[in-house]
Structures are given as C-alpha cells and as structure tokens.
Amino acid sequence: MSASPQFIHLRLHSEYSISDGITRLDEVIARAAADRQPALALTDLANLFGMVKFYSAARSQGVKPIIGCDVWIDDETALATDPRSTPARLLLLVKNPTGYLRLCELLSSAYLAPRRHGRAEISLTQISQGDNSGLIALSGGPLGDVGSWLAAGKVAQAEGRARLWAGLFPNAYYIEVQRPSGKKNAKDPASAENQLVQTSADLAARLGLPLVATHPVQFLDGDDYKAHEARVCIAEGYVLGDKRRPKNYSPENYFKTQAEMVELFADLPGAIENAVHIAQRCNLTLELGTSRLPDFPT
C-alpha cells in the first residue's frame, strides 16, 4: 500500500450478509477511496458470495481488496456442556492463495454439515486439523468466545481459549476490540463496553498477543439504521415495532472515517496501527475470467 493510512476497516457486512447487512459494495468502496483508505476488507457472515464483485470493483478504484469472512464456530466442548449455547464468532482474513483455498474448504464443509438453527458453522475440530498458515484470525470482539468469557468475568477460560487460537494461528491471531456504541460510551470507564475493551487489552498484554481495533460496519451512513433494522427484522421474524425484540445494532454501525476511528481509540493507538499492519499482510491476487475445469480422462 503506497499511502500512509491511519486506519483500515477489517470488518464489513455488505448486502450479501443476508441477515444483518445492507452496505452496497460500490458505495462503500467509493467511501473508502474518498477517505484515502488504500485497502478495505469484505467479511460477510458465513459466505463469500460478494467476493468477485468486491474484488473487481475495489481494484478498479485503486483500493486493495482484502477477502475474509465472519464465521460461526461450532464448539463441540461447549455443546456437550450446554446444548443451548450459542456458537461464537471468529473473523478470518485471507493472507494469500493458500489461505483463500483453506477458507473455501472450511466454508464448504460448514454448508455440507448438518446445521443448527440454519447456521453454517465451522467445526473447531476441523480448524485444528488443517493448515491455517494462510489465514489471519481476529477474536471476534464481544461476539467471540474470548470476549464472551471476559464479559462474563471468567478470565481463566478466556485465557485458555486465547492460547488455543494463538496455537492454531501462529503469529496470526489478534485480540479484537470494538466500541460500536460510539465515543460517548467509550469514554465512560463504567460502561460494560469499555470494561470489555480494557479487560481484552489486559489479556492481550499478559499473553503477549497483538491487539487490533475494528468497527462492525453494517451500513454506509447513520441514516441507514432504520432500513437496516427492517432487514434484520425480516431475517429474524420480528415486527419492527416490537419493543421486546433484541436490538443488537445502533446508528453507530456506519462506515466511520479514519479520523473517527483514531479518536475512538485514542487510548489504544497500537490497536489502530495493527489494523493497518494486518491489511499490509493480506495480499491475495485472483485470476478472473479463466475457466477452471477438471481434467477428466476421455
């Protein structure tokens, strides 16, 4: 990357995240280019459906495309303890062609396996049995297993799981921190969100793991929030006016500028810098327009 960016978005759900994203690829790439972000990641939920369109559009606008996926992790140990447990999330980013093929393999197996609640989940056992050297893993923030354990006050379990992931992704596992609520709560030391950021930073320091800041982008502008909530309600079977429905997003889930992200994590500049370093490590070149047919003997 020739430019000297301060921050690069590594977590983005587009309109191809059927349940929780409405970001149009052409528009978000143009926004990244306008903000002088030389790279941008597409990490739709459990799919790579928008990859080719994103890759072509990003390169045409001078933005380096980073391919990744926000995946569900099927933890057999957790299921044995509590069959009602919700699978954790992990963010996988592709470093090179080997990583791309590995991600395709993991996702294909997830879609072919029996599903729980309609989700395509990647088995923790499967991840541990393959070559992950071409992938970078981010812990998933508050939706990841490490973040969930920390939020519950179970530090020992969080440390154990972080060590496990670090072993599966040597020199390529990052503790992910987020402040999706925006600047106001981020500066409140009593907020649960900020407490999780602090405990995550402490965990990363104790284990010698790198920390990275991300922002969950679900739509382009704050004004798109209501449209996004309608999309979520359709996917989850709720009525928009139902006051009892879970509200997991806010108007802050828009595409923030570099300056906004730097201000949001002014207390953790290293986490901002690592977002750029990760982008520099991800270099995938795809050959498009060429047929790849199997060589069957005749």
Q: Would you write up a description of this structure?
A:
This protein is of the alpha/beta class. Helix content is 40%, strand content 12%. It contains twelve helices and seven strands. The chain has helices at residues 25-34, 51-60, 76-81, 97-112, 124-128, 145-151, 155-168, 183-186, 192-207, 225-236, 258-264, 269-281; strands spanning 39-42, 64-74, 88-94, 121-123, 135-138, 173-177, 211-213. Strands 1, 2, 3, 4, 5, 6 and 7 form a seven-stranded mixed beta sheet that branches. β1, α2 (51-60) and β2 (64-74) form a beta-alpha-beta unit. α1 packs parallel to α2 and α6 crosses α9 (192-207). The protein starts with 24 loop residues before the first helix and ends in a 17-residue tail after the last helix. The mean pLDDT is 91.
User: What do the pLDDT scores average to?
Assistant: 91
- Indicate the low-confidence ranges by residue numbers: none
The helix-and-strand class reads alpha/beta
Distance from N terminus to C terminus (CA atoms, Å) equals: 47 Å
Helix percentage range: 40-55%
Strand content: 5-15%
Radius of gyration: 19 Å
| Secondary-structure element series | HEHEHEHEHEHHEHHEHHH
The total strand number stands at: 7
Instruction: Count the DSSP helices.
Output: 12
Tell me the quaternary state: single chain
What kind of sheet is the major sheet? 7 strands, mixed
The rough form would be described as: globular
